[in-house]
Amino acid sequence: MLKALTDALSLPRALHADLWVVQERTFGPFAEPSRIPRDTRELIRRMPGVAAAGAVTYQTVQTVSGGNPVRLFLERYEIGRPGGPANLVAGHGLTEGHYQIVIDASSGLKLGQSVPLGPYRDPYTVVGLTRGMVSSSGDPMGWVTLLDAQALQFAVPPALQRREQASGRKPPTTTDINAVLVRLEPDASTVAVARDIARWKHLAAVPEAEEERYLTSFVLQKMQQQLGMFMGILVTVSAVIITLIIYTLTMDKLRSIATLKFIGAPDRVIVGMIVQQALALGSTAFGIGLVLIEELKGVFPRRVQIEPRDLFIILVIVILVCLGGPVLGVRAAVKVNPAEALASG
Amino acid sequence: MDKPVPSARPPRIELRAIAKHFGRGETRVDALPDVTLTVRAGEVVGLRGTSGCGKSTLLNTIGCVTEPTSGWMQLDGEPIYDGRYLRRDLRRLRLTKIGFIFQTHNLLPILNATENIAEAMELAGSGHTDARKRAETLLDYFDMHQMRAYPSQLSGGMAQRVAIARAIANDPHILTST
């Protein structure tokens, strides 16, 4: 199957966490909601074999840049702990407790730009830019501190706040986090630490590879299937187009084909010429497609990465289509009467 | 030295009561009445007749493109049709023993002058280099110097000279022309 959306795996891969600690009986923040108390990070940090632990939460927010809406997949992390921005290409990570944001360059936002976020539209300054960090939905990643996260997640507009107070309800607030990212000591066993966390802390500890698998299986699989379906449709349409083009080209050349047959060319030579033409057409289209993919992939927020194996499969499909497509043209060429070469005009 | 008597030359084309008709019953069309004809080596024979009298059908029959309905036919000493069976490797025969000059030159538009001639020789089994060399020799013989020109770039006369060069490229024993 086409291995697509490699960018979507950029986040779990870039975080370099040996273990993802999430709510018991859940599959982690990429698959389903996971809520664990914030002090879990400290409990995990003190366990044998754990070198570092960082609390993270995830949330999708929307802001405006240049009058255009920009959706961001925000990760909140603790400065100096696992979970910070990866693939920084400009600026630096977060240094202040509030109102700083590191953001992916695909958002179109610039270093130093002010980004209004939250119900109060607090201005967050872009202090760092990353590259190739997008969510599984293709939204650019952003990083803010956990403290800011609370404000973004639970702050409500003043009018709503007054109504809540009037009704006697307390404004929602929580210090829960979604996951704890764990980096282990060099000699620690991932399996053993994961088992201890599950046994003593009643949490699920998922190795990074497993978390990637969850993301791939639960979230990306449908996208891959969709892409596969689109690819199937495109291949079918391409096959029909190639068939029609080769048929039309063959019909245009019937007199030349009749002449060739008249002077003694065997059918296999004529069939070979037609198939050669189809293969030339297919390989040219394949080449142009590759160049277009390479040149235009940056324009799209959600990139489809085609790996060498995928390219080989596509090439085989192109060859098969080029071999099967000219059937109608070949049929017309084989049936042409050599005597048609004598027809005037 | 006396010239050989024509009748002593070997017959290249021998037709006996060759006929061709299309359709059956009321729709039957007699395209070629019984034709008996012998053409010997070195002879040049012209066919003249009204439109639809069967000139092209006769030429197609001699060119082994159209199968006769009845009669007997032999080309260059090789039996072609005995009234019931038609020889099978006619394509090879056309390629090596018969040259065709078409009314309209029928050059392949995607090949240049040299390639048009060389292609016919390569189909007959000549090597690529030899075929191109001989093609250039023939074009030179016909005073055609636009060897790399494509048919669309040639005048009618030039294109026809290339077509004649193609027709004789494989040293055919029989040359037909419309």
Provide a descriptive summary of the structure in words:
The complex is a heterodimer of chains A (345) and B (178). The longest helix of chain A has 45 residues, at 208-252. The relative contact order of chain A is 0.16. The model of chain A has no long low-confidence stretch (mean pLDDT 83). In chain A, strand 6 and strand 7 (122-130) form a beta hairpin. Chain A is 44% helix and 20% strand. Chain A has helices spanning 10-14, 40-45, 146-154, 158-166, 190-201, 208-252, 254-262, 267-296, 308-324, 327-335, and strands at residues 19-23, 50-65, 68-77, 88-91, 100-104, 114-117, 122-130, 141-145, 179-184, 203-207. Chain A has 2 domains: 6-218, no CATH class; 253-342, no CATH class. The radius of gyration of chain A is 29 Å and the shape is elongated. By secondary structure, chain A is an alpha+beta fold. In chain A, strands 1, 2, 3, 4, 5, 6, 7, 8, 9 and 10 form a 10-stranded mixed beta sheet that branches. With 178 residues, chain B is an alpha+beta fold. Chain B has 2 domains: 6-88, P-loop containing nucleotide triphosphate hydrolases (Rossmann fold), CATH 3.40.50; 113-177. Chain B has helices spanning 55-62, 90-97, 113-123, 128-141, 156-168, and strands at 11-22, 29-40, 70-75, 78-81, 98-101, 174-177. In chain B, the strands form 2 sheets. In chain B, strands 2-1-3-4 form a 4-stranded antiparallel beta sheet, with helices on one face. A two-stranded parallel ribbon of chain B has the order 5-6. In chain B, a hairpin with a 2-residue loop joins strand 3 (70-75) and strand 4. The longest helix of chain B has 14 residues, at 128-141. Chain B is globular. Classes of the chains: A alpha+beta (345), B alpha+beta (178).
